[in-house]
Fold these 2 entries.
Entry 1:
Amino acid sequence: MSANEQNKLDNDKNTQEDAPPLPDEDAPPLPDEQPPLPEEEEPPLPEGEEPPQSSAQAAQPQVLQGTNGWSAIFEPQSQRYYYYNQTTGVTTWDNPFSNIQKEEDKSSNKRQFYQEEDDAIDPDLAHLLPSSSKDPHGYVQAKFNTRTGQFNSKSWQTPEHVSAINKSRRQQAAFFDVDAFERQRNEDHFNKKAKIEQLGKDSVKQKLTKEQLKLYKEQKAAKRYKNKTDWLINDDK
């Protein structure tokens, strides 16, 4: 061994002997763990309640962190966790994190649903929607047809809105007065029905029978043939 190597070993040995002893303290907590509470600051057990008995083996201590001030503390005697709120000072055996998780999931699902509905609407045409559609809770106004008794909804999202009849009415309304035409048609129907009730069915033109229809077709064919051959007779004259 050379002199340089011997001197290096001696310096390392002297440095280790001169190093101060480590402090008699607990190791600091990991970044994902909550520092343990001191013994004098440990919250009391829930008042008026006995720790529930559990036959299961002792679980490994685990600290649950929440944004609302709740902490889970392991109780060795009952081998269970109790929960302490550092903000309000409340202690309980019931797990508050389960209810918070359910409420957060429910509210997030609602927000996601309404967000998807809003994304499906063209923002340039959103002002054309009825005012009720802007309400996230929403409501529907409806009425019953006075003639048929059918349930008629005023919502534009009903299947009847895209039916062939309603499509044609919206297209024709741009060029004609569809409502006036329908009113006139209904009036004619009611007048015809009132005339039948007043004067009887004989006052209304009856449909032709099969024999009458056949005779009418024969007469019309003979007249058409006569018109085609009439020029021959005139030429002979």
Entry 2:
Amino acid sequence: MRIRTSQQESLKQGPQMAPMIDIVFQLLIFFLLTLKIVEPEGEFQINMPINQPPRQSSEIALPAIKVRLIANEDGSLNSIQFGERNLGSGDDVFKRLNQVILQTVGGDQAGGANAADTEVEIDADYNLDYSYTIRAVSACTGAIDPVTNQPVRYVEKIKFTPPKRPAGAAPQL
């Protein structure tokens, strides 16, 4: 009797491809149905000002008020200079600085439009303790009104000069 080899070959079957194709189509349909199409961002509502001719300002821009903080070797405050004027040192030097700023800006205009235009430039020594710089910023910015207990702004803009390392000093790590 002869054994047919072709039947044995017909009994060997590979993996069924039809169920795999069905799963692929089901996944494709699932992802297409769950896909949310959104508009790409790029449209912004911007309110532009109306084109106006440039106005001639009668006010002259004030130069920056220069405040110099001079330090001792140990980092403590030696003195404060307002422009070329020496305000000295001591516990009340920041009160004097506050009064000079108020006189310069104008007492009746403190907190007004002049406060937004006036700029103070603080030049502190490289080795000055940071607490003195903060006290100088507070003195230049304004004061607390004793009647209303509300802050009164003398100056809105305060900038610092870039720190200058002393010539013979090595960087401290």
